[in-house]
## 1
Amino acid sequence: MATKTEKKREDLRKRLVDAAELAIAEGGLRGLKARDVTTKAGCALGALYNAVEDLDQLVMLVNSRTLASLGENLRMSVAQDAPPTQAMQALAGAYVDFALDNTSLWSAIFNHKMAIGAEVPDWHKAEYPVLIAEIIAPLGQLRPDLPPEALTLRAQTLFASVHGVVQLAIHGRFVGVPVSSLKSEVAALVDAMTRGIHLV
Amino acid sequence: MATKTEKKREDLRKRLVDAAELAIAEGGLRGLKARDVTTKAGCALGALYNAVEDLDQLVMLVNSRTLASLGENLRMSVAQDAPPTQAMQALAGAYVDFALDNTSLWSAIFNHKMAIGAEVPDWHKAEYPVLIAEIIAPLGQLRPDLPPEALTLRAQTLFASVHGVVQLAIHGRFVGVPVSSLKSEVAALVDAMTRGIHLV
DNA sequence: TTTGCTAAATGAACGACGTTCAAGTTCATT
DNA sequence: AATGAACTTGAACGTCGTTCATTTAGCAAA
């Protein structure tokens, strides 16, 4: 049964995550302030620490949403029965688009650092593989020789390389490619990678 | 002439950057505290703001050193008259080694964010191209058809892709490759890229 | 309904932080 | 030696995340 206490607790949690998501979207991780977020959520400052462990956990809850949303975008980007190289390009393109359209929330996924001594809980760690899940199938078609663990490893490398180009393009200090060239450079990278992968 | 005032000012600056470098190396950007760093440098809290604009500038001065040191490592890694693919592998390997051996200082280069409203000054921006400078020559040999701007662009993409793999391996939440596989995966990435580049 | 117990809400207070500032001190120049 | 500018000092300020004693609300047994 949903007691009144539990319902209110859940409601407050949702309002807090909503407010935190908005704050991060507007001002990045730096824009997330306990006082702002509780005001926006309509509760007292101290109530935050009843609904949630601390600000770190609030960030993780926001990142959880972002990862789910990003995962859905990636999943929807691949046309059914698309050839593997086309699937790779579609995934990379969707990733670039998401990062450009949701820069602050996307950055928070990778830039959030826990307080010293604190570890990322398992439930949140388990949400990250969504980033590479869709790569594995087309990569497996390109490299039927690779055993599953090697396939996962190569998918991680592939994702990380694309991620790096996007990250430095958006946040790099004049070593990243200009954002105007981002999509074409990522496409060239994926092209080279899939060709190279095919040949090795 | 070096007046006594100027000499002392320079000395203090150096001691502050030394202390800041140590603090970042030990505790990351989060480990840099105004009170700690001034105590370690042997001056009063307020003196920091006479020697230096603020903590952001102190971080940039540390990053300046790290970039110079990293640049030297990259330069020394390439054997003279090495074939271009070998030069690429050497550069990537040196980059991985530097990141693994100086993780906190290396991270600070990419994770430091200025206070809101503040911009990275030009003198510091100008220090980042050291990261891609050495890539251009061997890449030019692989792609003699590319005009200079396209060459720079492709070098940036190449660097960023390697950087991404290293970054996620070291800081990723279970989407990066294990550190034990980092060198071989980066090597495979560079191999695929140079092969792919050669063919396009 | 009333009573007692548990759990949540509240906002003042705490400690740590970056930064500023009025006061005292040192230095270069006359 | 005297003057004015520059540096040094550490207390003080404002902001932050977090805690806590107190008040308030929800729930179950009588």
Note: Chain A touches chain B through 51 residues (CB under 8 Å).
## 2
Amino acid sequence: MRENGAMPASDAVDQPDQPWNRRRLRSTNERLLLDRLRAAGSASRAQLARETGLSKPTVSSALAALEEAGLVREAGTHTPERGRMAVLYAPDPSAGYALGIDIGRGWLRIAVADLAGEVVARSDVRNRARTSGALADLVVGTARQVIAGSGTRIEEVAHAVVGTPGVYDEERRRVRYAMHLPGWGRAGLFDRMREELGIPLEVHNDANLAALGEYSYGVGTGSRLFAYILIGTGLGMGVVSEGRLFTGAHGGAGEIGFLPWPGRQKPQTLEDAVSGLAVVESARAFGMTGQLTAKAVFDAAREGHPAATRAVELEGERIAHTVAAAAAVLDPDLVVLGGGVGHSVDLLLRPVRETLRALTPLRPKIVPSRLGEDAVLLGALATALGTARDVVFERRSTVS
Amino acid sequence: MRENGAMPASDAVDQPDQPWNRRRLRSTNERLLLDRLRAAGSASRAQLARETGLSKPTVSSALAALEEAGLVREAGTHTPERGRMAVLYAPDPSAGYALGIDIGRGWLRIAVADLAGEVVARSDVRNRARTSGALADLVVGTARQVIAGSGTRIEEVAHAVVGTPGVYDEERRRVRYAMHLPGWGRAGLFDRMREELGIPLEVHNDANLAALGEYSYGVGTGSRLFAYILIGTGLGMGVVSEGRLFTGAHGGAGEIGFLPWPGRQKPQTLEDAVSGLAVVESARAFGMTGQLTAKAVFDAAREGHPAATRAVELEGERIAHTVAAAAAVLDPDLVVLGGGVGHSVDLLLRPVRETLRALTPLRPKIVPSRLGEDAVLLGALATALGTARDVVFERRSTVS
DNA sequence: GGATATAGTTAAGGAGTCTTACTAGAGGCG
DNA sequence: CGCCTCTAGTAAGACTCCTTAACTATATCC
């Protein structure tokens, strides 16, 4: 959880080695109220006092401070069965904004969301950049446009998160293992973007963010430990444990592309055997001809083409091996399949489950992604939002 | 982290949804000082004030309260270069005790440690119990003896942790997957022990505890994410992430016995292929004869016996597959090999590393266990200590 | 012996919370 | 309609705990 480029102020929140003086006490209580409001949507002061255990005067005073700082605002009224009318308070979504960026081989997706998580502007553009420099420029330019289009000022964007293939190496300031983006491993690329945008920028692996996206907005909600397997041009896995991203020692957790795979001739890695291209290859081996893409093979299988069907079966078996490895090591309660094959998961589920039954007694629930192509972007937004909320909260006292 | 049998009071410490009233403020500061003393060994009041950022009067008053509660005591003096002599304070190790229990197929090991982590009594007895009931009785009896031998009263033992093969199912109150202990899967066994002992009892997987032991007292210290692979009668893995046990959704993380393993004929699980018995089997297949044990094969290999050497090589290759799977999924910075093969890791390291090099570009550091057979027991103690410290601290105000 | 530096205490003041008591407003009911 | 009851919210003072500042105690250095 320490691979962010710019150190966000969020750390101040739960540092156990800090003295707890009165100011900190007040701050903690304000935070408690804000989080509670966020969870409940809106609430009256009396209600908050009951729920948090704080006294009514304390709630009133803390809430007044939050309103003063612009983090909270009145949001209508509520009349109880009998008794006086209550004034409701709610978090002010426009207290700050978060930026999410999904850099994929085919598409670049950028969105701005307010603190409530509502997307207020979004842009999807084709990634036609030939060089890493051009791609970086495209990212910065598009981000500026999206922010402008959202009607917010750049200073209001408190935090940004970028999703990219590969693993960001914090020390060397570059991405490793980004096979499918030429030149993307250059050092300092993200520093440049951060500088040109003027927004704290955090870089994460795309599969990890997709997992977090699916956890926050999709089918993973409430799971204690779930794994998101992203099958597309490459192969990746993101793991969310107790609501937090599980990144491993160097941010490389879930790089299941490197799982050993028992090939017929020699050991090769799983990525060669499971990624989108492999489906095409095996379909060809089974006798399909013509200009094939993974999508074409799946479409053919859906119409009953025998070679395509067998290729899909084989792909399912391969994915099952991935799931089996993840299940044995991680013990997830949910496995989500997503990525390029997202539209074809219906075809894959049966062979995956059948193979899994033969492989291992551990059989976690396997479901298709709900967010599809948007998982990475939404995950980036969710992550950026988390930090943005902290940043905006920390800022409140110094600004006013 | 929620598979403990008795809910420890530790949860009160960092519940973010609790109001932060004045009492809590004081409590947090006392805890801060206590933890700091624990880390430093001993310190003067002025020193603590400097390090924590609290004022001198606050430190004095909080420390007086801690001393009153028996958690802290004077521990000599220290004379600075110049200036008045300082009175040093240190945590009182005898403020409470923790009990660690390692239930293995061959041995039962039980130890009591004081709050400083010092083992004050220990007993290792052969596990000759034929039934699960007899084993439970043996555990309770031996535990009572050890506690008596340590010169402490049972009420002073604040928490106990048991390590056992298999996964403890909190809901059904029984152990699952404990293949090698007959009848050990019976429900309510641990509830009985807890009741008869009168100590809060927490149950964990033995490989998990071994990992925690190696993290706390062995070679894993400071690792961000490390995996402990326990190879013995069975096969297990424990994962420690950021100092905390990684248990998965149902406490089954690291059950790599269930990893699919490409057998020659049909898919079988890895446990069959890697556990101690497998070494014997393959040695026999390579032509060794006689009454073989895993230890005998390793000894023969050490003396150059060709069949034994080949069997060990094969074992190394198999372990490498395990490591490769763990590395791809978890991205550890350290992998520790331990368990029954602990004494033979020197023979295995080379083949493991060589095979790994061919399998995957990810190559985490691989080292042998430092604690050997004691890893599980020490891990249980370390875990129990963590909770015991919390319990004793929480108790302080109500007792006095 | 005085200057200086460190350890620790005492006294005064301040910040934030709690308790208690009150006012404000909305129905129910005789 | 007036009164009662119930809920929301405010006001005032007590209480707790922290901090600052000043002070005492004790050691070394010159």
Note: Residues 21-23, 25-26, 29, 54-55, 57-58, 61, 79-85 of chain A lie near DNA strand C (CB under 10 Å from a C1').
